[in-house]
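Known limitations

Files may contain more than one protein. Parsers should not assume a single record per file. Below, a two-record file is shown to illustrate correct handling: read the sequence, read the token line, then continue until end of file.
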Amino acid sequence: MTAAHGAGVEVRGVSKAFGVDGAKVTVLDDVSLTIGMGEFVSVIGPSGCGKSTLLKVVAGLLDADSGTVTIDGESVTAASRDKKIGLVPQSPALLPWKTVRENVELPVRINRGANGDRALRDPAELLSTFGLGHALTKYPGQLSGGMQQRAAIARAFVFDPAIMLMDEPFSALDEMNRDLQRIALLDFWQSNRKAVMFVTHSVPEAIMLSDRIVVMAAHPGRIAEVIDVDLPRPRTEEAYATDEFRDLEAVVRGALRAQTEKAHV
């Protein structure tokens, strides 16, 4: 398992409800979670368990009703101001009238005051790392869905953030493309360790990428179980065929099945 140094993300007693008065629905209930620097943690669970809501609270896109979140020892507001948070949404959200390189450069161009004297990643180098060195001058509409998502991931790394928050970034891709993209992400992460919170519905994806898998329960959303992934790193596609991988898959699927059954009682 990855050795994590220091707390990248600290979630303490976070609760969140939507609606008003008697119609309020609690989506997150007293959730606490720590993701260490250099640690890759996936969050998985039944539909409606609050996975994406939790990620949005950590990202500062939603305010918690109670509890606290810190990023690299700072409040979410301060960490966002200091560009310590990299966010990859489900959709690439690339501007169609800008080239791939211009899309990746955009956060730097519109946040010049946040740059300070910090080291920024070179957009062309990042795109080359993600296999898009040939596509710098192409427009998003000229790229496949998988290539667009890689460009979105490269854009999130341009500020060299302390943590990466990824909300099902490969969910719109077919299984073959999805596997290619997760291996590309894994290769990049293994050479450039960040604290990662990764929301997914895919059990194999969670196992392949993660150091730990957080299984959430629904109604209301809370952490039901945390499963260590002790597969050796670096990982390659060969890991899928190992007995250890299949054993972990059975454990995670069993935990998910239990939570899904509880959610329908």
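...continuing to the second record:
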Amino acid sequence: MLNKFPPLNEQMDIIKRGAVEIIPEDDLVRKIENSIKTGKPLNVKLGCDPSRPDLHLGHAVVLRKLAQFQKLGHQAILIIGDFTGMIGDPSGRNSTRPALSLEQTRINGETYLQQASKILDREKTKIVYNSDWLSKMNFEDVIKLSSKYTVARMLERDDFTKRYKSGEPISMHEILYPLAQAMDSVAIESDVELGGTDQKFNLLVGRDIQREFGLEPQVILTMPLLVGTDGVEKMSKSYDNYIGISDSPQQIYGRTLSIPDSLIYIYFELATDVSNDKLIEVKNYLSDPTKNPRDLKRELARILVSMYHNSKAAIEAEEEFDKIFIKKEIPDEIEEVFIDNTVELNILDLIVFVKFASSKGEAKRLVQQGGVSIDGEKISDPQFIVKIKSDLILKVGKRKFVKLKLKGK
């Protein structure tokens, strides 16, 4: 019985979402058309680096793309780089990663699989270790493989070029790394290989080496490197700007709320499975100056907690965050100001009334600078009308707090 796949356009819409490059896209279209015609799934490969066993949302970007191929009916193949992990891949770095023992790469690989199973259907994922074929190659095999690629081509790789020009050493085993990774594509007859943009060179080498072995070259699909919570560097544990997929619900929620507003859309696109219609809604919301981006950020945090835990945990994490946030923001002792039983009051009038500003002009500047909040909710509109109630807390700046009390209440 032939596998039933979704139509080509539907598959391409899902596959292209968030992708930086598909090389060449025409080949991918042809491969998918043939897959639909024959009922044979594509072999979609992702090599994982066992030197970093703790996965975060940055790793999840490409893992989730593999899961999308899997849900479309294709064969997801996860290659645990236990052998290449002993070499150390310098991709995106100006020096090589530390090499690990085979035993350590195997231990890390199992930890990787446990976490990756939060994203992939493990029962439908083909899991292989590249030591199964790389460790069997003798020196003659390595020489023959090396003859299929030139030093000049290898030095086209950005990080090698920079190190060569600056006089930094490049070891021969590093040059062999892309060839070893390419042999993974040969061994499993990969149709598509996924990777981050920092892996583009290695993935292209895989195409060339497959061709040398008489195989149809794989299509490569690169995904962006997710910027971390600091809004500057790519997500990494070493930068302490990560959101781990095995973090507690409270950690995922709190760290998500710490991302800058400029990353909200990117995280919705790359870190969640929300629909394209929802992405349009998010973009429109963020472009509306009357809307508070924090509301979207809270929604994003709930979605991420639900993805890696469950919806109940998301609600509890939000409630706990709010409780802790308010407790941290409000001092134990706070000045109380009594006000007449006024139902509503403009925010500028209220700030002047409690003497946190000497004029409405000064109060307006404080609001526009983002330093005014009511019960923890930031007020950005100078025309905002406050519905007065007893025990309402006004905060202006970092240290000015006042609790409103209705006279006679």
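Parsers that stop after the first record will miss the second one. For reference, the second record is described as follows. Residues 92-96 have pLDDT under 50 and may be disordered.
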